[in-house]
Amino acid sequence: MPHDHDEMFEADNATRAGRGPVDHPTMLSSCTHAASAEEAKYRVQYPNSIVRTSRIFALDPPAAEAMYAVTEDPWENTHFLTLLADSTIASETPAQDIPLCHPDGTATNLNTELTDADVVVLLATRNSSEAAAEIIACECFKRKIMCAGLALRRASSPQSISQVVSSMRKFTRVLVVTEDDDYIPAMLTALRA
Predict the structure, then answer these.
(1) CA–CA gap between residue 103 and residue 81 (Å, rounded)
(2) Bridge-based pairing state of the strands 107-108 and 119-124
(3) How far apart are CA 87 and CA 64, in angstroms?
(4) For residues 151-160, average pLDDT
(5) Would you call 65 exposed, middle or buried from its count of C-beta atoms within 10 A (0-12, 13-18, 19+)?
(6) Which of 5, 128, 149, 160 is deepest in the core (most CB within 10 A)?
(7) What is the pLDDT of residues 123-152, one digit of tens each?
(8) Long-range residue pairs from 138-146, CB within 8 A, at least 24 positions apart, any chain
(9) CA-to-CA distance for 134 and 193, rounded, in angstroms?
C-alpha cells in the first residue's frame, strides 16, 4: 500500500533530491526483512558454535580442590588434570615428564592430553608451579592451542596473588583473577568446554 500521501513520508521525499513517492515506510529496517518467512529459508539451522575439546590443569593442591568441585558437571570433551603432589618441575623438564593425573588418580602425560585439544585452562592459587605453567603454555603455543589462566585468590596476602598473576601472565592469552570458585564453571561455559 503506497504511503506517498502520508505527511511523514512526504517530508522524507522532500529531503532527498530526485526521489519519487515512497511506497514503503522509511523506518522499515533490513533486520525486519531478514526476519521475514521468505528470508528464513536461508538461515543456518544449527548452532554456530561447536563444543571444544578442553583440558583443565590444576597447578597446585588448593586449585585442584576447587577444580574437583566442578568435575561432576556435564562437560563434554573436557579432561580435568592435576599435577601430582610433591612433584618438582624445572623449566627444562621435558613436556612428557610432567607428572599428571585425572581426578580418579589415573596417570597421564601432557603429549597425550594436548592431542586434539582446542582450549587449555590453567588454574593456580600460588606461584609454586610456574615451571609447569611455562611448559604447558609452550606446548600449547607450539600446537596453536589457546591457553587461558584463572588465578584463584585465597585468604592469603595480596602479594601472594600478585605473584600468581605475574607468573601466569607470561604464558596465557587470557588471565582472570577471582575469589569466587563459581567463576570456574562460568569460564568453562564461556570457552564452550
Answers:
(1) 7
(2) unpaired
(3) 14
(4) 73
(5) middle
(6) 149
(7) 988 877 888 888 999 999 999 999 999 988
(8) 138/95, 138/171, 139/95, 139/110, 139/111, 139/114, 140/114, 143/114, 143/117, 145/114, 145/117, 145/118, 145/119, 145/120, 146/118, 146/119, 146/120, 146/173, 146/174
(9) 22
